[in-house]
Amino acid sequence: MNRLLVSGIACLLGLWLIGCKKEVKSTDVVNRTIEDTRTIKQEQQDTVEKENRIDIKQQIDSVSSSVEKDQQDVFAWNNLYEGEGDILNQAVRLLKVNKSKAIALMDESNQLKVKNNSLYKVFDGLKSTELKDLLGEELRQSVIANGGLGVNIRVSVSPNPAEDGASERGNFYSFAIYENYETHMATLAHVIFDVRTLSYYKLDAEGSYVMLPCPDSVKKTLANIVQN
Predict the structure, then answer these.
(1) How far does CA 81 lie from the centroid of its chain?
(2) Contact 68/159 with Cβ under 8 angstroms?
(3) Residue 72: CB partners within 8 Å, gap ≥ 6?
(4) Which of 11, 38, 101, 185 has the maximal Cβ count within 10 Å?
(5) What distance in Å separates the CA atoms of residue 222 and residue 215, rounded to the nearest whole number?
(6) C-alpha dist (Å) from residue 70 to 24, 160, 195
(7) Quick one: pLDDT band at residue 48, thresholds 50, 70, 90?
């Protein structure tokens, strides 16, 4: 009787262990599937970002330069707040400092270091503003249909001038977006991105820079380009 009872218990225990193994195996399969899905999604996102970067890169009309990236200090420093009173006033409000302090924060002694390829992040961020159509495929195709070469971008100021084809350094990006034709260029917009305040500005018809509204989520992403 005891022997039969022991055998029965042993059988039940064996069945329970088999069930546990199947459950563990099933859980492992699910976990691997979830991880594989995450990997695929990340690869797809990286591919899209790379393709967008290539498209934008083709539009940049870089100023030719033989200066190495580690020789950035040969470029003249441009203090944005000294030259643009409208942007200075906005900076005073955003940074909650007086004008003298704001200008000092834009000085070369307070240079902001940004990551490589940050220019493309700035262009991506611009697509969240009212100027988003200027970097769109529809406008480019329209220009080409009218006999043009496309829509190009010329960068004049950058924290990484050698990398971005700019002629001056500063804690901001300054660039022009224009329609490119064989015989002439038609400027669409002059844009400034202030790295210190993470703000976009466009030059209006009266020659003043006005701020472009930009979602906080985009500004949070742009904050990641700063290294110091």
Answers:
(1) 23
(2) no
(3) 160, 161, 162, 169
(4) 185
(5) 11
(6) 54, 10, 20
(7) very low
Question: CA quadruple 102, 88, 199, 213: dihedral positive or negative?
Answer: positive
Amino acid residing at 9: I
pLDDT at position 188 is 97
Residue 29: pLDDT band by 50, 70, 90 thresholds? Answer: very low
- 47: buried, middle or exposed (CB in 10 Å: 19+, 13-18, 0-12)? exposed
Distance CA 109, CA 100 (A): 14
pTM, 2 dp: 0.73
Alpha helices by DSSP H, listed for the chain, are 2-59, 80-83, 85-95, 99-105, 118-126, 137-145, 161-164, 216-222
DSSP per position, 179-225: EE-SS-EEEEEEEEEETTTTEEEEE-TTS-EEEEP--HHHHHHHGGG
Q: What's the rounded Cα separation, in Å, for the pair 144 and 160?
A: 31
Model pLDDT for residues 191-228, shown as the tens digit of each residue = 999 999 999 999 999 999 999 999 999 999 999 999 98
Paired tokens of 227: 């290294």
CA distance 8 to 202: 83
Instruction: Residue 196: name the closest of 162, 165, 219, 166 by CA.
Output: 219
One DSSP character per residue, 119-139 reads: HHHHHHHHTTSTTGGGGSHHH
Q: 202 with 189: CB under 8 angstroms?
A: yes
